[in-house]
Amino acid sequence: MPILLDSLISCSWSFIESEQLSAISSRIVLSFPADIVVDADNVLISFMTLYRRICHFSVVRSNQLLSVDEEYQKQAIYIRTYLALMLKSSENNSLINKIYEDIVKTVHNIVLSRGDTTFKPSHLVHELTSFWLDISNPKLRESLICVLCNWLENNIESQLVLILMQTVIKSLSPNLIPVGLRVIEKCITCYFSRKIF
Q: Is 72 exposed, middle or buried (0-12, 13-18, 19+ CB in 10 A)?
């Protein structure tokens, strides 16, 4: 399997349109087993590794013919897919919290590695909160909100602090606006806790 993956690395994945990736994402979420994020076999791990490369989900900027906006959109599709697969898992909340925190860290690292001080990465950050709409278990949703708020508190210099202030309300339904306001309040607190040099 590694030989096959290595041979596919050199393919021009930039020719796959975001709309096609979005359709593939929906099929992956519907078709893949519920435990793929926490307990996948080698074939599924290899497939998800390939899908990650197709979506350019990496801190290394793609050297293919791809605009920054399109790359962010494809990365957002990967995040949406991965978080939807995470929600299918029947694992305990602590493992799901860890997986979510890892995704938040990766998004932070992608934004940081690009040196992007604009709001272009908002596609990525939007996905970190928009999937909360799909959570039927209020305790799980609350624990994920706490994970994000705690991460922000421990990483006040992150660009995610500012981008979340812009995206969180837009990503949620009206009944979750109080949750969005909590996140914005945490972002404001973090922003004004930054050291001024």
A: buried
Output the six-digit token pair for 128.
């970190």
Domain segments of the chain as ranges: 2-192
Residue 63 has a pLDDT of 67
Which helix (H) or strand (E) segment holds residue 27: the answer is: helix 18-31
Retrieve residue 127's tokens: 């996905």
C-beta separation of 89 from 143 below 8 A: no
Spatial distance between the Cα atoms of 75 and 108, rounded to a whole number of angstroms:
13
- Which residue stretches of the chain have pLDDT < 70? 1-14, 40, 62-64, 90-91, 197
Claim: this prediction has a pTM higher than 0.90: no
Contacts within 8 Å (CB) and 24+ apart, 18-22: 18/70, 18/73, 18/74, 18/77, 21/54, 21/55, 21/74, 21/77, 22/77
Residue 28 is predicted with a pLDDT of 87
Cα(182)–Cα(165) distance, integer angstroms: 10
108 touches 164 (CB < 8 A): no
Q: Record the tokens describing residue 134, joined without a space.
A: 């799909």
CA gap 148, 115 in Å, rounded? 22
